[in-house]
Amino acid sequence: MRLDGRIHPEILRLADQFAQQYTWPGTSSLVPEHAKAIKAYQSLWMKQYGKGCFAWFVFYSVAFVGSIAVKPMLGNPSVNFAVLSVLVLGFLHAYLGYQTSRKRLSADELAALLPVLDLSPVQRAYSEAALVLYRLNLPEETGDDVWKQLNRLIDEETRLRSVRDRGSVGLSTPAQVSSEMEEIRKRLDQTNDSMTREALERSFELCQGRLQAVRDLSLVVERVDAQLEMLAQSMRGMRDSLQRLSTAPSDTNWELDLQPLRDTVEHASFHSQALEAAVNEVQTLG
User: Which chain regions cross the lipid bilayer (predicted)?
Assistant: First the structure.
């Protein structure tokens, strides 16, 4: 079963990025774990697309040979045009087909690549939940709702990670800025020149402002990390719930409670906006 159209685009991108990194010879050296995953992935890919690729190869080969075979009837210019057209169409078809296949991902392919993909804790729990979810025979409305909430959780994680990256860029630690302030204070104590003191006092004031900004940004990063941990725990909780549902006897009357997941999404969305605004404010003041 294909997951494209359901699974979050970021997971699809990461899976494709990894597959492309190791698909072409000489692109990257393979460690044993990666080699095993890529071999399994390529085997699955060939099962899905191998027959179709071979059929089109035969078609264009016949067309190529046929265009040459009609040379006595059409003449050299026409044959050359026909041969060139077949080659161009063949390469174009192959390229577009390959690019289309890169946007598709089956559950088996994701399962093969999952152990070696470089994923965040939230993304890994999401991928594991997706593999369980696709096997469950849930009512369509319930299944759509689960996918929607899981994808929203990934959206919020992406947003929070962006906020964290912005808050961490070029971030000095409070200890580093305090050390700079102490150095300026020592220089103030050692000079009596009025112009030098004026410049150092101004530097000290600027350093105080930097210290406050660094403390504020450090607090924002700390809060973002806490939000990311909450998302990871929520995603793992939903993964475990889906796993329990998949192993429950068919006659068990067990319902999937999506309210905690919805609450987490709303909570994360609210705090993402607040943290984003905080980073913007601190960076503006800084």
Answer: 53-73, 79-98
